[in-house]
Amino acid sequence: MTKYIFVTGGVTSSLGKGIIAASLAKLLQARGYKVTIQKFDPYINIDPGTLNPYEHGECYVTEDGAETDLDLGHYERFLNVPTSQANNVTTGRIYQHVIQQEREGAYLGKTVQVIPHITDEIKRRMQLLGESGEYDIIITELGGTVGDIESLPFVEAVRQLRWELGANNSLVIHLTLVPYLAAAGELKTKPTQHSVKTLLEYGVQPDILVCRTEHKLSQEIRKKLAQFCNVNINAVVESIDASTIYDVPLLMLKENLDKTALTKLKLSNKNEPDLENWKNFLGKLKNPTSEVNIALVGKYVELPDAYKSITEGFIHAGATNECKVKVSYIAAESVTKENVAEKLKGMDGVLVAPGFGERGLDGKLNAIKYVRENNIPFFGICLGMQCSVIEFGRNVLGLKDANSFEMDANTSNPVINLMEEQKNITNMGGTMRLGAYDCEIKKGTKAFTIYGKTKISERHRHRYEFNNDYLKQYEAAGMIASGFNPETGLVEIVELKNHPFFVAGQFHPELKSTVANPHPLFVSFVAAALANKKSK
Ligand code: GLN
Description:
51% of the residues are buried. The strands form five sheets. A nine-stranded mixed β-sheet has the order 13-12-14-15-23-22-21-18-19, sandwiched between helices. With 536 residues, it is of the alpha/beta class. It has 18 helices and 23 strands. β12, α12 (308-320) and β13 form a beta-alpha-beta unit.
């Protein structure tokens, strides 16, 4: 029977529920359990696909094409197991389903209400992944903070579900903040007491408290938290600030979070967790023998969460290369023809990021021209790839108005064009080319050296594509298509023949980089940056 762990948050947002959930899942997985994590978000958007990255950080895309919360990225990076449509559910999705059912007459004349209809639908979704029997344990992270009006139906659903599942089949972990008051020189437990009290008002008693803190929790504080929140003292878990999120599983292991959870679920904790590979990764991550500087040129740089998976991809690739990757986030708009050399000074490699819309386009083109002409390793992702095509068109092929149809629908040289199947689409949500597609790699190319095979699969999120009418012209001038979709012929990877490393993909490799499987494009790009640095 599948057991359920619910993770709620109290006191404030941004405590890192996703990291705690992923860390616990990692420990349980390392003990041999089959685990998955799902996230329930209380906002009304059907999914985060239509959200501006400034609102909610990066939109993470799954194999099956779901546009999801960035926490799913953490789940995949930690567990190395793909997530799916079912792993991220929003209030919007719940209501959409219930309202559709109502229109179909499925409620047989009943008044449709939050309780039971919305909570029933939440509970059904919470158990969906459990139906396959594939998982021993399902961890459900509830977005938002306990006490928020919009979280209420989710907390109520958890209360009901715990009752339905029966004793020992579920547990609630409450993540809370234990703030340090410098003036008093003390850690304070009151906010935690209050947030647990709020949960209790809704009928949910947490089993475990995970306490985010900047200082170690003394035995006395632990006892106080336990006593006032009705939990065992060993169920008060310290989650102290870590230098890297990848430390958190080991910190949780030290605090016995996994053991405590297993004991409460009446599951065996006999198998010691096998974390050898994880520790190897951490060893390399923390003991780099060299360092490289990478510029990430993009338009959402004020909020690093907008590029979460790329940042993590560099961490994985850095560890593989035993090299510290220092990423500088450069606002695309600020890069001009005049200052580009200054802006990219000291950079061993440059990545041009994914994105939408015209803002920052010129800056990206300036950066690409500079790295192309100066043999600096370049890595383009999605819009970054499209920009490299525009830049090459304008400055090498002499197509002065070469552009993407996205930026200029009247250009006489749409070297990046709207995809055929996108032409009749009017709705914005969930309508891009999304999820995993096969890609065939040409032998003898840099892409082939990097991947070491001809058949790969990568994840996508875009509406525009390389315009194949121009392919011959590009290839004749030295920009070749080294990867393409075997069914449609869409160009998926371009690279320059006469450049140490100039590779750009229409897909998002960052979404597939995990601790266990750092992405080959990131690994090779970091290696190229390192080689560039050494050659200077
Ligand atoms: N805006 C571009 C497109 O839709 C690129 C998207 C992206 O970078 N994810 O094709």
